[in-house]
Amino acid sequence: MVARIPITNALGGGDYTGQIQIGADRRTMNVLLDTGSSQLALDARRYRLTPGDVPTKLAQECVYDDGSGWTGAVIETTVSAGIWGAPLVLEKARVALAYRSSGHMFDGIDGILGLAYSALDDAREMKEVTWNIRLPHLGRKGVGRKLPPYLKQLKRLGVVSDRFGFYTRRSMVRVGHGRAADDIMNQGVLVIGGSSDGRESRDLFEGRFQTARVLAQKYYNTNLKSVAVGRRAAIAVRPTHSKPLPSNSIVDSGTNGIYLPKRLLEKMVDEFAPEQQKMLRRALHGYTVWARDLDLARWPDIAFVLQGRKRGPDARLKLKACDYWQVDAWRKGHALTVFGKSAPGDGVILGLPLMNGYFTIFDGEADRGFGEVRFARRKG
Predict the structure, then answer these.
(1) Can you tell me the distance from the alpha carbon of 80 to that of 190, in angstroms, rounded to the nearest whole number?
(2) Which of 43, 126, 170, 171 has its CA 20 to 30 A from that of 353?
């Protein structure tokens, strides 16, 4: 079985959201799609318990890298996904209702759908129904539990768990071309389930897939081997194998930029032509760059090489100028660079810009459950 969900970046500030239906009355909720977390959580101010929803003794709490977070009570309810073809209707799905959240956690959206591995789906089991007590913080109260993420729960429907594909065109909202939500550049598709070669999605990509190996069953941890600007010599990137950081990079659909350690970012910028270096540094320091001054045709592609399968080639992914410069982002005529400095210890975060030129399949089932990320040139 496979389901397709139309997605948009117009609601989540550049991050993509998709619609799912919750409860017996199939109430539509717009949820942020995030490969950097695993919980399915809804804002309790936007979703109220309905007949058929079953509160449980489980509770969840999540804090994201940007400091935002929520605490919620877990219920069992019906979750429907997909409006093209037969929808996936999952009974007794476990969903957290977030009764406490940080200030802007759910601005413009109704919840968040985590698409990462089971290792991140932590819960606490209490002695009584958690919807009734609504603890402001969980800490180490109760007994620790691991819950199967939504994708794992789909096994009950015969759907291949932990396999989904993203089709996107932008990493930041384009404005100035009519209503943002109606602009095709701000729209995309999430494909849930399907085969490893993406045969159900031939209309979304062309050519062969390139494969990046996943090195840990947590995030989609990858090994970035090098970065090359145009025809310049490749900049080697040191691998990481420490326990808290099992790889030097992750592929993250919930990030609308590409974040590099300070030294790597500086080396990459130095590889551009002098005038291009000035523009990039200006943008990196928060100054306005006008699209009319860029002449994108003169900017080189940037190649990111990710470690491939054990007995296969590495994935050499090209980031085009139109992807690392987002034109008409937030204001018509402006151009924003997607590059930024990662926090110390975070390594490389390869967000939506790297995915925008590709149909990207995240396959947590491949390689004995460690997973792979596959990229094929998108159509359209």
Answers:
(1) 14
(2) 43
Three-state SS for 329-361 is: ECCCCEEEECEEECCCCCCEEECHHHHCCEEEE
Q: Which residue has the tokens 């810009």?
A: 353
CATH classification of 203-377, choosing from 3.10.310.10, 2.40.70.10, 1.10.10.1100, 3.40.190.10? Answer: 2.40.70.10
Place of tokens 């090489």: 305
Read off the pLDDT of residues 58-106 as tens digits, 9 standing for 90 and up.
999 998 877 889 999 999 999 999 866 578 899 999 999 999 999 888 9
Residue length of the chain: 380
Look up the pTM and report it: 0.91
Q: What phi and psi values does residue 255 have, to the nearest 5 degrees?
A: -125, 130
Rounded (5°) CA angle 277-280-285: 125
Q: In what order do the strands lie in the sheet with 325-327?
A: 289-290, 334-337, 325-327
CATH superfamily, with its number, for domain 2-161: Acid Proteases (2.40.70.10)
Alpha-carbon dihedral sign for residues 256, 205, 162, 186: positive
**What is the rounded end-to-end Cα distance, in angstroms, of the chain?**
25
Dihedrals phi, psi of 123, to nearest 5 degrees: -145, 165
Query: Do the domains at 2-161 and 203-377 have one common CATH topology?
Result: yes
The phi and psi torsions of 83 (rounded to 5 degrees) equal -115, -5
Give residue 141's pLDDT: 94
CB 376 within 8 A of CB 198: yes
What whole-number distance in Å separates Cα of residue 317 and Cα of residue 302?
8
How big is the chain by its Cα radius of gyration, in Å? 21
**Domain extent listing, the chain:** 2-161, 203-377
